[in-house]
From TrEMBL:
This is LCAP aminopeptidase. It comes from the Eukaryota. It holds the Pfam family Peptidase_M1. Coiled coil: none annotated. One of its GO terms (cellular component) is plasma membrane. Signal peptide: none annotated. SUPFAM superfamilies: Metalloproteases ('zincins'), catalytic domain (SSF55486). GO terms for biological process: peptide catabolic process; proteolysis; regulation of blood pressure. InterPro entries: Peptidase_M1_aminopeptidases (IPR050344), Peptidase_M1_dom (IPR014782), Peptidase_M4/M1_CTD_sf (IPR027268). The keyword Protease applies. Residues 7-102 form the Peptidase M1 membrane alanine aminopeptidase domain. One of its GO terms (molecular function) is zinc ion binding. Keywords: Aminopeptidase, Hydrolase, Protease.
Length: 172
């Protein structure tokens, strides 16, 4: 319950145009300190949970083990974690490409789902809680790779959930 409260507080901050990406280039030590705030930590944790759910617990765990073995007693960059996950997925999913869309964009997407009979249409757009004119920037190019998980009436959530990666503005 406490973690959900933290996530929702972070999402409120991230839904403002004055937000910042989880990962960005820095020029000074002051910028480094500004990057390590609650938003970065909580959003980062949420993104890792999203990835774990999408890849499955076992695949995610194997990717973490590869990452830790490859970089023990050394330094690493965020791409190194994604590369380890790519190694485990054997090229079936470009984890780096997917996760970059989440860590280099500020904010998060709003996904609209419309059902017409057996056809489900989904569309994404950048969600802004409140536009602050002094900090407004265009977000027309924002595109996330969103892992959507769903079930049908033929199964339940724990036994046969299916996944769809929304990597366009809309999909069916």
């Amino acid at each position: 319950e406490d973690f959900l409260t933290l996530i929702f507080k972070a999402m409120m901050k991230d839904a403002l145009n004055s937000s910042h990406p989880v990962s960005s280039a820095v020029q000074s030590s002051e910028q480094i300190e500004e990057m390590f705030d609650a938003l970065s930590y909580i959003k980062g944790a949420s993104l890792l949970l999203m990835l774990k759910h999408y890849l499955t617990k076992d695949v995610f765990q194997a990717g973490i083990e590869v990452y830790l073995r490859s970089h023990n007693y050394g330094s690493a960059q965020s791409d190194d974690l994604w590369d380890s996950m790519n190694e485990i997925t054997n090229g079936t999913l470009d984890v780096k490409k997917m996760m970059k869309t989440w860590i280099v964009h500020k904010g998060f997407p709003l996904v609209t789902v419309v059902r017409k009979g057996k056809i489900i249409s989904v569309q994404q757009e950048n969600f802004l809680y409140r536009v602050e004119p002094e900090n407004w920037t265009s977000d027309a190019s924002y595109l996330w790779h969103i892992p959507l998980t769903y079930i049908t009436n033929r199964c339940n959530f724990t036994h046969c959930s299916k996944a769809y990666l929304l990597d366009q503005k809309s999909g069916t």
